[in-house]
Amino acid sequence: MKISLNQKILSRNEECAKKNRIFFDEHGVFCLNVISSPGSGKTTTISRTIKDLGDKIRIGVVEGDIKTDTDAQKIRDAGGEAVQIETHGACHLSAEQVYNALKALDAEKMDVVIIENVGNLVCPSAFDLGESKRVILLSVPEGDDKPIKYPGTFAEADVVLINKIDLKDYIDFNLERVLADIRVVNPDAAIFQVSATTGEGMDQWYDWLINKNGAAQSAR
Amino acid sequence: MKISLNQKILSRNEECAKKNRIFFDEHGVFCLNVISSPGSGKTTTISRTIKDLGDKIRIGVVEGDIKTDTDAQKIRDAGGEAVQIETHGACHLSAEQVYNALKALDAEKMDVVIIENVGNLVCPSAFDLGESKRVILLSVPEGDDKPIKYPGTFAEADVVLINKIDLKDYIDFNLERVLADIRVVNPDAAIFQVSATTGEGMDQWYDWLINKNGAAQSAR
Question: What ipTM describes this predicted complex?
Answer without folding.
Answer: 0.93
